[in-house]
Structure formats: C-alpha cells, structure tokens
Amino acid sequence: MNLRGTLPTLILEAIEHEPDHGYSIAQRIKERSKGVLDFKEGTLYPALHKLEQESTVESYEGAEKGRARRYYRLTKAGRTELAKGRKEWLKISQAVSQILKQA
Amino acid sequence: MKPLEQWLCAATQGLSPESAARVRGEIQQHYDSAVEAGDDPITALGDPKAANRGYRSVLITEYEQAMAPALTQAKPRSFSNLLVGLVFLAPAIWIQLTGKNLTFGSRLIALAIFSTLPFSWFFAGNTLERSRLHLYVAAVKDCVVVGLAWWFQGWISALTLGAISFGLEYALNYQRFLFFRKLASGQSVSPLPGEPQLTHNDAVGLSNLRKGAFRGETISIVIIFTMLGAGTVWQPATCAPMTAWMVLAFIARRTLPIYTEERSRWFRIAKWATAVVAGVLPVLYGAKAPWMGAAYIAFFCLLFDSRSIALRRKLPVSEWPKRLYW
C-alpha cells in the first residue's frame, strides 16, 4: 500500500516510546501494519533527515552489538506533531469510512 | 560493480562529498542489518533515483557546495555585481523615461517589479533569517505585481507576470532559503579546493568552468535564445544584429580550433569587435530603441566574461579549463 504523505507520522509513531535506528524503524512499521504497509526503505532516510531539519526528531551516534548506529529520538516538537498527525488521520479515516459505508 | 555500490552511486549522484559520505554510512548500516536478518536489502531499498530525489531536497548538493562561498559572504553585493544590475536595468529605465505611450499602469507595474532591487543589493541574504526575510519581501512584491497587472491589464497579464515572478523567486530566493535551512540542521560545507590567489567568487567560477555545461547554464542558454528569438520577431531591426552575434559566437566557440593562447586571444578580439558592430548597427539605421541591443550585449559580456577575464589574469595557461579560452 502506498504510504505517500503518511510516512513522517508513521516514523514519529515508531519512535514515540524509545529511540531507534533506521532499519529497526522500517521493520517496526511493516510489522505493526502486519505487512499491509510496505514501502521502499531507501525513502526512509530522506524522510528522517527532513524530520530532523524540522526539529521533530534528533539523532545521535550509538552502538548495537558492537556496531555503530545512528539513533533517532522524538523531540518535544515531534510529540506535538505526532498528536496533530494522529488527529488529522483520524478525521480523514472517519470521513473515508463514512463515504464507503454509504456506498 | 556490486549491487549495493551501484545503488549508492545512483542515490548519491549530485550530492556534496560530506552528504554522499553520510548517505553511504547510513545505507551501509541498513544493508548490514538487512543481510543479518536474512532480507533482500537491495529490493527493500527500492528505486535509488527516488531516494536521490529525496536526499537532494534535504542534504547539501554539489551545486550548493560550489555556490556556498558566494551565498554566505558577509558583504552585500560587489561593485561589479551592481554594475551588471545597472546594465540590466538601463533599458527598463530608458523605456520608462522615453516611452510616451506607456500607460500609468505599465509604469506602476515596472516600478513594482524593480522595487526590491536596492533591498537585494544592500541587504545580503547570507543567513537563514535574512534569506527568510528576502523570501517574504519577494513574495509581497510578487503579490503586488500580480495585483497591479490584474487591475490595470487583466488576468492574462496577471497570470503571465505571476508565473515569471514566482518562478524566479523559487529559483533564486527559495533555493537559497533551502540551502540555509540545510546548513542550520548541522550539515557542513567543505571549502572548495581553490588556488590561494583566487577569491571565493573566482573559485566558484573556476569550479563551474571545469565542470563543463551544467543544468542551470543549459536552462539559461535556452531562455536567452528563446528571448532573443521572440525579440527578433517582435522588433527585427533592434534585435536581429544582437541575435546574429549571439548565435555566431555560440557556434564559433564550439567549432573553431581556438584552444591555444594566441588563437584564443584573436577569437576574443573578434568576438568583442563584432559585438561592438552588432551594438552600433541598430543606431546607424535608426531602429526603434536602438541602444537596447548594445545594452544587452554589454550585459551578457559582463555577466559571463567578467569572471573569465579575472581568471585568465590569475591562472597560468596550462591550468585553463577549455571554456576559459572563449
């Protein structure tokens, strides 16, 4: 399923509770959607950089199993953005459901 | 070449060395994790060109790296840039002063179009905040231009002027703002490997000359020739000599064997001599707006040649890139 436009919100959601690295964020989104939401992982990093520029996430160098990793964590502005994204998505999905029910 | 290396080459095309290194690092980490988990990483990464488009919008590109010294310089505009601007403005001022048939609306629109020039000259947009201010000022000016065009000349004029103004604002001010936003996110730009006697602007000019034709230049050549073609159809007596000179110069430098110091010098002498002839011809046979051709030839010569003249003086012939012989 195409994720155009919703990927930033899904990324923010994936790192809401704990910081994570790129590969794990991609897998988390795929797993939590039970494989329905599939996206090309090459587009994940430009989206992460954009979120970093908007100060909704920040990154730092870490290590996992002795391997260097870049971790991303949510900022205060990111939490506000995530809440806004959730609200907007709820509104859109309710409207679409309403239309489809009518059909 | 390995599939990962192929993917990285396509995904990092046009990025600055620092940006490319960052992409390589993060994708390598991603690739290793995917291999460890038994996934097919290249298929999962998807189209590298799509990733490249995304990266170019958020990471510093090669072109921005070359432009960085000019974009970040603290002083507003140099005297030569002011001169180029004035040469460009001269025909507009001349039309304003002598155009008896110009309506009040046309004069107001022209005034609005050029109203922000002093601001751009004397207030450098060399930081994120300043470039943001430039963007706002330009947006307000464009709205005023479109409003005036709609009020005095109708919606076709408003749409045309709007498309040109907002297009230029996107190419100039918005791209500059994006560059400073990228810098503000902590990215760095390494200085260009320049010769010690060269100024920042010389180094940028030299880097562009060494690169050969780049996208921005190709677009500007197409725009210039389209404008000249339209001008020749509209006012053949005024514009034809200028068009003929530009076309001949364009063809000559691509076909004639001018790539020695001596031949190059003769080529440039012939180029300037014919430019003078093309500028004087409309005056001799009394064309309408006779100085327009001369002004535009002077503008193009100043715009393209002023940097080359400085570089020729500072660099030994053995280090001249091919395009410096023109």
Question: Can you describe this structure?
Answer:
The complex is a heterodimer of chains A (103) and B (326). With 103 residues, chain A is α+β, with helices and mostly antiparallel strands. Chain A has 4 helices and 3 strands; from the N terminus they run αβααββα. In chain A, strand 2 and strand 3 form a beta hairpin. Chain B is mainly α. In chain B, helix 11 crosses helix 15 (291-314) and helix 12 (215-234) packs antiparallel against helix 13. Chain B is globular and about 80 Å long.
Shape of chain B: globular
- Tell me which protein chains meet in the greatest interface and how many residues each side has: A-B, 22 and 28 residues
Strand content of chain A: 15-25%
Mean pLDDT of chain B: 80
Radius of gyration of chain A: 15 Å
Residues in helix, % of chain A: 40-55%
Features:
heterodimer; A: 103 residues; 4 helices; 3 strands; B: 15 helices
Summarize the structure.
The complex is a heterodimer of chains A (103) and B (326). Chain A is α+β, with helices and mostly antiparallel strands and 103 residues long.
